[in-house]
Structures are given as structure tokens and as C-alpha cells.
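Sequence only, no structure available. Ideas?
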Amino acid sequence: MASTVILLAVFMTNLDLWIVNVALPAMGTTFASPQGHGATLGSLSWVLNAYAIVLAALLVVAGRIGDRIGQRPVFLAGVSLFTLASLACALAPTLGWLVAARTLQAVGAAAQLPTSLALLLATVPAERRTHATRNWAAVGGLAAAAGPVAGGLLVQIDWRWIFVINVPIGIATVLAGLRTLPATTRREQGRLPDLLGALLVTVSIAALSGALVQGPAWGWTNPRTLLLIVLALAAGAGFIVRSLRHSRPLFELHLLRLPRFGAASAGTFVFGVAFAIMLLSNVLWCQEVWHWSALRTGLAMVPGPALVPVVTLLTARAAQRRGHGPLVAAGGALFAAAMLWRAAFASVAPDYWKDLLPSMVLGGVGVGLALGTLVAAGVTSLPGHRAATGSALVNSVRQISATVGVALLVAVVGSEVGPAQRQDFRIAWLIAAALAVVTSAVGLQIARSAARAAGGAADAQTAHPDRSATAAASAEAR
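Reply:
I predicted one. C-alpha cells follow.
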């Protein structure tokens, strides 16, 4: 029962991502200017990016707070805040109000996500950690499958209902969690992690996103664009310096020196950028180029995300037998093929069977192979007492990559979207394909690292027969 409560909360958070993407064009119509023009893609992108930026900045802080006072209270507080913020989103009278409420949603999600994985891992034996982590990621895929259809149906009534739906789910999760979630021990004491570092990384990502979003309209050499770029670099550099020097840094950068964790984090970022480009571009293409309704768009997008949890579960044993690297490499290759297919066959005249469906199928299998496997490769390489903090770091990377992906798409396509931007969409899909190829290379690197680790374990077994069991277990963990 406890694991069901945890996964229900994860489902709610991930469902929100897909629903909001499908509803974005409808929001633009609601928040039209007095002249009757809809809100631009650049301004609407902050509905997505404000959430992702704050979530990325606070995930590690929340993970550390969970390590400090226990995962259960932090998790329940996060679900409660997310639920209340969802209601505020539904009542938003202006776009600025909506962005502010989405920021509060992100605070709740930041408290919920890392502690959810830590609580889930606490309910299973050590040998099932990889399986539990992949199931945790698969729930995100299940939400992705339900999200487009649910979003399309709710937008037919009013886009505000995409947030109202979180309220009963959140209330049920809190009530059940109070009765069933295990009481976790406090693992850390002392000061909280570097809060100034959290502010610096927020400023850096927000400034970079602003430069990418506004650059096409302002001009890339405009003083305002250059100022945002300088601010992003300065805040980013300050964040790195503080992380290296602070006694309790926001991101423990030394974890990136662990070969598998560092490679998995890099792969998660690169693949996350490609995934964000794919997700938003498909929604915009269907609604703004093909002029499909939100419901028809949601139904059209189902095959891809529906395959994600299926592929994730079916390949669980393959991950155990062959390791994480080959699955990541194959997933990246298939996702690249999906983006190349779109670039080659996309037409302003709707042709779902030739254009979108094959790409969604290829992309869904690719995401199912790569995304959950990258998360599992990173989290399971960390010591148990860093489970919450490590998973928070991995998820921070995912959110940062989502922000960069959305901003990059806006920079390529522009704030006004329609059939005239056909070639711009193709450029965005080619960028996503190139990033997916890089993900495949990361998967090969993870595989090589695992092979070297297994060879080292074999050498240790030969040199120290009395340590054979330990060496074998270590190699299997890698």
C-alpha cells in the first residue's frame, strides 16, 4: 500500500507535465492581449520553464531536508503544497498569476520527487533497487500516456480543469500517506545546504532561458540579450565556485567524478533537451500547423508515451543481464531515428500515418529504453545514505534539460508559430536527433565503464579469493 501511495503522487506530478504541454495553446487564447492577439510562445513558455527552473533549484535542498528530518513529513508537505498550488493555477486571472502559481507547484514537487524515490527504495530489499527505480520511472511513462488524452478532454471543457484534476488526487494521496507511509530515520544533522547556491543556479538558468526565448525578437547582439547571457554565465560560475568551496554545497559535484553517475547525469541532460524539444514541438505542430483540437492532438500523441512504461518493464531483465549501457545506446539511436523521420516526412498537410505515428512509435521505444535506464544507472551507483540527495541531483539535471530544450525550441521556431515555420521545426528536430546520437555515445561509455569494472572485479577475485563474493557483488551492482 505504501508503494502505491508513493507512485500515485509521482503519477500526479508527471501527469501535470504532459497535460500542461497540450493545454499551452488554449492558455494563449485565454490570456490574449487587448488587441485580440494570443499570448506569444515566448511568454507562454514560462508556464513550463518557471516550473522546471524552480524545481531544478530546489530538488537537492528538499532531498537534503528529507535526509535531515525524515522523508515522510517532507513528502507529505510537498504533496499538500502541490495540491494547493494546483488550485491556485486553476483560478489564475492573468498569465503572471499562473506563472507564480506554477512556481509554487514546483516547490511542492521539489519536496515530493526525491523523497518519493527514497521512500520507495526504503520499502524494497537492496537487490530490487534497480527494479524499483525503473518502476518509479515507468510511472512517469504511464502518466505520459494518460496525459495527452486527459489534457485534450479537459481542455475541451476549459484548460483550467487540467489543474483541478490534481486536487482530488493530492487529497487522496495525503490521507492515505498519513496511514501507510513508513517512518524514515534522520540521516543528517547540521546546517541546510547552500541556499545562496540555489538562488544562483535559479538566476543562471532563468537568465539563459530568457536569452534564448527573447534573443530572436530582441536580436542576439541586443544589449538586453547580451546582459542576460552575461548574467547567466556569471551566476553559473558563482554557483560552481560555491559548490566546490561550500561545506554543504547544493550539488555535490564530486559525485560526478563517479564514472557511472557522471556519465548517466550527462546522458540525462542531453537526452532531456532532445525529449523536451520533441514533446512541445509535436503539440505545437498538431495544434498550430495542422490546426487540430487539443483532444485530437492528445489522441494522436498517445502511441509514443504509451509505449514507454511497456518497454521499460519488458527490458528490466535485459538491464540486469546486459547492464544499463546497451539499453541507453539503443534508446538514443531509436530516438534519433524518430526525429530524423519527422524532419524528412513532416508536411503542413496533415498525414498522421506517414508523418507523426512512425515517429511517435520510434520515439516511445527510445524513451522507454533510455530515460528510466539513465536514471537507474545514476541512482543505483550511489551509496544508500545519498539516495535522496543523488536522486534529487539526477532529477535537477532533468528539469534543467527540459528548460533548455523548451527555450531552445522557442529560439529556433520563434514566438509566432504556424505553417510558415515548417523549416524551423525541421531544424529543431535535427538538433534533437543530434542530441540523441550523443546519448547513444554516452550509453556506450557506460557499457565500457561497466566492462572495466567487471574486469577489475575478476582480477580482484584472482588475487584475493577470499573476497570473491564481495567483488562479484560489486561488479553486479555496477
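The chain has two domains: 2-184+250-477, 194-249.
Hope that gets you unstuck.
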